[in-house]
Amino acid sequence: MKIGLICEGITDYIVLENLLCNYLTIDDEDIKQLQPLLDETDKKQANFGGWEHVLVYLQSTDFVNAVENHDYLIVQIDTDVCEHKNFGVSPISLADSNQAQFYELIKQRLISQTNQRYSNNFEKYAQKIIFCICIHSLECWLLIHYQTTQTKQEKITGCENALNNTLNKQNLAYKKDYAHYNKLSQKIKPKDIELMAKHSFSFGQFLRQIQLLKIIMVGD
Predict the structure, then answer these.
(1) Using H for helix, E for strand and C for coil, what is the string for 131-199?
(2) CA–CA gap between residue 145 and residue 139 (Å, rounded)
(3) What's this model's pTM, rounded to 2 decimal places?
(4) Is it the case that residue 215 has pLDDT exceeding 70?
(5) Side-chain-side CA neighbours of residue 12 (13 Å)
(6) Residue 84: how many CA atoms within 13 Å on its side-chain side?
(7) How many CB atoms neighbour CB 213 within 10 A?
(8) pLDDT per residue as tens digits for the range 72-100
(9) What's the structural domain count of the chain?
(10) Residue 193: which domain range?
(11) Which percentage of the chain shows pLDDT scores above 70?
(12) In which band, very low, low, confident or very high, does the pLDDT at 43 lie, cut at 50, 70 and 90?
């Protein structure tokens, strides 16, 4: 199986790679980072990342080539700057009252981006595309995992600072780089992943798609 990852950054990439490998029981060789590129020598980002480059990639010929040459593509994006004019999803406050509706607005924005240069592009490849929409950042997902059982409560804003504080209380180091995010996510077990989904709406949406993929893999 060949899975391609389109992410905002390499910290997002390594977390998703670890979660996918652990949950689907696959090797990291089955996963390829497409955007941004990763320098395998020093594990640093080799080109520009961020949400704007995710959107640019989705309307490019690189996306078409990638979706044709992989079994599945996972598209990850944070929603913390969705009100920016180039993102164009508003209001962000909708997520406070109705995450399902907010999630759907973000999803439709990504779909429209894939169809911007090539009409019906998404419809053509929909079965191969998995959305990984993080409300409002992937750190919110990690935060859920590292909270104690008694304190698990979904948080969608200020998650990076909250994650840092939570880790400090557990005498764990935090730094936003490949090595630290790899360490934070590489031992998250399938049962932990399913527990995270119960406490995070957006992670639950992502996991449901991965569970369908797992069923397909078993059938094959």
Answers:
(1) EEEECCCCHHHHHHHHCCCCCCCCCCCCHHHHHHHHHHHCCCCCCCCHHHHHHHHCCCCHHHHHHHHHH
(2) 10
(3) 0.95
(4) yes
(5) 26
(6) 11
(7) 19
(8) 999 999 999 999 999 999 999 999 999 99
(9) 1
(10) 3-219
(11) 96
(12) low
Cβ–Cβ contacts within 10 Å for residue 193, how many? 20
CB 170 within 8 A of CB 147: no
Q: Residue 76: which of 11, 151, 28, 21 has the closest Cα?
A: 11
What six digits make up the tokens of 171? 């005498």
Q: Is the pLDDT of residue 193 over 90?
A: yes
Q: Which residues fall within 8 angstroms of residue 158, CB to CB, at 6 or more apart?
A: none
Strands, E assignment, the chain: 3-6, 31-35, 38-39, 44-45, 72-78, 129-134
Tokens of 39: 């320098």
pLDDT of 99: 98
| Contact of 142 with 163, CB cutoff 8 Å | yes
pLDDT in tens, 157-186: 999 999 999 999 999 999 999 999 999 999
Q: Which two tokens stand for residue 22?
A: 């652990």
Q: Which amino acid is residue 30, in one-letter code?
A: D
